[in-house]
Amino acid sequence: MSPPRIMFDDGSRIMEEAASANEDAAAHQSSSSSERGNISTEVYYEIDRVAKEVVEKLDWSTNTSRGRLFLASNTAEFNVNDEDGFLCRVALQFPDELLADASEVSWLMEHAIMSAYKSKLLSQQDATAVISTSMNNHLQQYPLIFILGDTTYGSCCPDEVSANHLNANVIVHYGYACLAPTESIPVVYSFGASNKNWKECVDLISREIDNKRKQEEESVEKTLDEKLSLTDDDADSKKKTKLLLLYEVKYHHCIEDLKLALEQSGKVDVVLGTVPKQQLSVSRNELSQGRGSVSNCCGGGESEETDCCNDGKTTTDCGKTNCSNDNVTKNDCNEGDCCTPAQHQHTPLESEQKERFYIPRTIGGLEIPNDLKLSEYTMLYIGDDIDIDSINSNSRTRLLHILLRCQAPDGTQSLWSYSPLNSHLSTDILDSPLSPTNDTAVSSALSRTLRRRYFLIQKAKLATTIAILIGSTSTSYSFRRMMARTRRRIQSTGRTAYTFAVGKLASASSKLANFAEIDCFVLIACGESIAKFWKMERDEMLVPVLTPMELDVALGYRAWDGRYSCDFGDLIRWDEDDGIAEDDLDDCDVDALDHTAGGDDEGSNSSNEDQPFFSMISGKYEQSRAAATTDTNLQALPGKGQMIEYSSEAAEFLKKREYQGLEANVGQTEAKAAVLGQVGIASDYGEKTN
To answer: Which segment, 48-57, 279-288, 599-608, 680-689, is predicted with the most confidence on average?
Structure first.
């Protein structure tokens, strides 16, 4: 057999790679152009609006030089010692399809931020006064603008980790976003701007509401007494249709115009989904000071010497010796006294702490009021693509989560959708076809997704070792609390919990396949990343990958009752409704969480672990493979509990494997001196040696 031929590169390979790179760059350029069409860069990326928001989100407290200069007079001189040579540090995060515009946007943002910064800094100064040397030197600096192109996880999530590498003060996130909460760095979103006329949309909705009312009047005949019993306000509220308005984020810049136009029609009451407010962290020192602060029960007292109430009444009028005394609580104030419940307020730090621990209620990433009753509303979705079976598009994943939540038993009355691109209104999105080329109904694709999720839940019931898969860089309170909650519930059922952080989920399957001892994964990430991972999980993962809600069903904490959500806020609120309470701790320590349900949920859960259950996977009754968690009297065992045995599920699994890796065999292998081996190339070593 002749040796293989050796091919020499004459430079053509480099030329081909360069041509391929140029084609990729041109593809990115055309993709970016298709995203914004003929709209100019300044308008599409909302340069002026974003720059003003960036400046407003900077730290203007007296802890910074900009804050001291802002609050001082023009002529005041400061020894600025906390500057690093830049006005501020701003990270611009672009998805792949918009990277072609990144350099142009960065230059525009630099000039816009400088202009907005100067206007903000001089807004409270006397225009006729001479600017101080300190302020003049400060304004000679430039902002540091840098671009985040390759994100740690998904491009939909603000990359706080990468932004912190250069100590960014603010992140500007361009393009599609999952709207996940952030805590360490403020985020300004820019979803792209375009001109939309909502007149046709309002006309179609008004016409549909009129037709619906006519049908109701024909089918239901009200008696005269019922009509007379309704007041004018009741009659108006009965006439108006309640709409929950959700949308693709690319319409965020003009969605307020649609809300206003619908309300002006006088036929609907609109509740608009909004971008969730950010949860910036509060230092532990401030929190401890907030807990120790003393405030009077009226909430507005100055000191023990002043009146306890704002309306001029004295402590004698209040009926208490001293309402602001810390020994007198708000419960000591009787009804009718000057201390009304409306006056019982938290201190600013307590309010800030409460805001930090606030978990917004969201649907599809958009925040809705906490007390909103979905059953009273009709959901109207503004978007162009409803093909939820193909989740290559970002907008489809948002709609998928909206439908999973709103079609539940406690969901909305009906599901409408309007496509601004096609000017088409659908009053039953579930019966609509996925696309013009696919006649499959949306309801069929949704049912197929739920059946797949239920199948994986049944497989996970037999899992012994469960791994928590981190799919986000978020450090927000809601994320940390969900992490602690998930680990706590896995361990409380006698199973073993591990935590994995593997970076981008697109390449996670090949990495996770190395851990054969894992029976099930639980993915904690934003809803967009979860939905995109489902497609890959079906094709590439060998074990189930669940969401936190699905894990609750698999572990027996929740029944499969038709409710489905990937929103952390929904899961925590459902726990409260079901009587499962967990303490709100600052660090969300797993060992410190107090898990109770109905007074003794953990005990009832553990008492039912030995009961067999019918598995739809095997078609017979199975018994949980979780380790026993019952308390054991160590004094009754040999050794009286003096010896502690460490148990590891991963180590036990390794012992069962035939191949356990390279064996060192220290002291058993004969040591030999190193000798010269063969010399040559792989195709022909030859026989000669030196």
So the answer is: 48-57
Distance between CA atoms of residues 3 and 686, nearest Å: 12
Q: Name the token pair of 478.
A: 């809601």
Residue with tokens 């109430």: 309
Amino acid at 149: G
Q: 189-213, pLDDT tens digit by residue?
A: 999 887 788 999 999 999 998 888 8
Give residue-wise pLDDT tens across range 220-261.
555 545 555 555 555 555 578 899 999 999 899 899 999 999
Q: For position 6, what pLDDT does the model report?
A: 46
CA separation for the pair 406, 430 (Å, rounded): 11
Let me know the angle formed at the C-alpha of 210 by 206 and 247, rounded to the nearest 5 degrees: 35
Token code pair at residue 471: 């799919």
Return d(Cα 88, Cα 103) in angstroms, integer: 18
DSSP string, 349-372: HHHHHHHHT----EETTEE--TT-
For residues 527 and 503, the answer to whether their CB atoms sit within 8 Å is no
- What is the spatial distance between Cα 178 and Cα 474, in angstroms, rounded to a whole number? 12
Note whether 477 and 356 are within 8 A (CB): yes
- Write the CB contacts of 422 (distance below 8 Å, at least 6 apart in sequence): 384
pLDDT tens-digit profile of 352-370? 445 556 788 899 889 999 8
Distance CA 385, CA 443 (A): 15
The 8-class DSSP code of residue 341 comes to: G
Q: Is the dihedral of CA 329, 335, 340, 345 positive or negative?
A: positive
Q: How far is the C-alpha of 546 from the C-alpha of 555, rounded, in Å? A: 12
Answer whether 352's CB lies under 8 Å from 586's CB. no
Q: Percentages helix, strand, coil for the chain, rounded to the nearest 5? A: 40, 15, 45
Residue 495 token pair: 């199973």
Three-state SS string over 231-288 comes to CHHHHHHHHCEEEEEEECHHHHHHHHHHHHHHHHCCCEEEEECECCCCCCCCCHHHHH
Q: In degrees rounded to 5, what are phi and psi of residue 499?
A: -125, 130
Which amino acid makes up residue 688?
A: K
Distance CA 588, CA 609 (A): 27
449 touches 401 (CB < 8 A): no
Closest by CA to 505, choosing from 155, 93, 95, is 155
> Quick one: how far is CA 434 from the chain centroid?
27
Which burial class, exposed, middle or buried, applies to 154 when counting CB atoms under 10 A from its CB (0-12, 13-18, 19+)?
buried
What sections of 599-664 are H helices per DSSP?
601-607, 649-656
* The residue type at 258: L
Question: What is the amino acid identity at position 487?
Answer: R
The single-letter DSSP state of residue 547 is -
Of the candidates 258, 194, 251, which has an alpha carbon nearest to the alpha carbon of residue 398?
A: 251
The structure tokens listed for 322 are 């001293």
Bridge partners for 497 per DSSP: 466
Find all residues with CB under 8 Å of 383, minimum gap 6, and list them: 247, 248, 251, 395, 398, 399, 417, 419
Query: What are the CA-CA distances from residue 454 to residues 556, 562, 680 (Å)?
Result: 14, 11, 59
Question: Strand (E) positions, 387-495?
Answer: 414-419, 424-426, 433-435, 438-441, 465-470
Using CA of residue 442, residue 174, residue 369, residue 384, what is the dihedral sign?
negative
The answer to whether 675 touches 681, Cβ cutoff 8 Å, is no
